[in-house]
Amino acid sequence: MYDLLIKDGQVSDGSGQPLRQVDVAISKDTIARIGTVESKEASRVIHARGRVISPGFIDIHSHADLTLPIEPEAASLIHQGITTAVVGQCGHTLAPLLDKTRTEVIATQTPQGVTLPWEKWSTYESFLNYLTGLKISVNVVPLVGQEQSADRSWDLWREDQRRKK
Ligand SMILES: [Zn+2]
């Protein structure tokens, strides 16, 4: 007995061939069978005729790391079908928090109107451990922001802040 059966959906096998209509049976978190599966073989059935069945999409340039600490369910990603987010592409991340740039990182990376639990991490590893502990709903491919350790870019930021005052 499968846990879930997605019936009569369109599937691409990635070969460039046209979509084909199949049933996808899932046991726990694993695709157990692709082909023809009877509804009675699963405890839950989703009828997907006219729809595409996909294991999810990868967002290769995401800033989800800024919001995952406060919204681990990542509803906005899941509703778009995104199941994996690559974060840190632009060079800024919430960690590591180095002594010499901690104040600047917090000042520039806190999303507007949000309070982040900055005290929960300092190294990148501790940030990832924090996210893991939140049981976030998406996979994360983390890239360390090179900005955090680039003295010159922070010097420019500080200079810019002084000019604005
Ligand atoms: Zn970006």
What would you say this structure looks like, in words?
The chain has 165 residues and is an alpha/beta fold. The chain folds into two domains: 4-47, no CATH class; 57-164, no CATH class. It contains four helices and seven strands, in the order βββββαβααβα. Strands 3-2-1-4 form a four-stranded mixed beta sheet, with no helix packed on it. Strands 5-6-7 form a three-stranded parallel beta sheet, with no helix packed on it. A hairpin with an 8-residue loop joins β1 (4-11) and β2 (20-27). The chain is elongated. The model has no long low-confidence stretch (mean pLDDT 91). The site of zinc ion has 4 residues, from loops.
Q: Compute the CA-based radius of gyration.
A: 21 Å
String of helices and strands: EEEEEHEHHEH
Low-confidence stretches: none
Strand composition percent: 15-25%
Q: Tell me about the biggest sheet?
A: 4 strands, mixed
- What's the overall geometry? elongated
Give the key terms.
165 residues, alpha/beta, 22% helix, elongated, binds zinc ion
Task: Give a summary of the structure in a few sentences.
With 165 residues, the chain is of the alpha/beta class. The protein has helices at 75-78, 102-109, 124-133, 151-164; strands spanning 4-11, 20-27, 30-35, 45-47, 57-62, 82-87, 139-142.
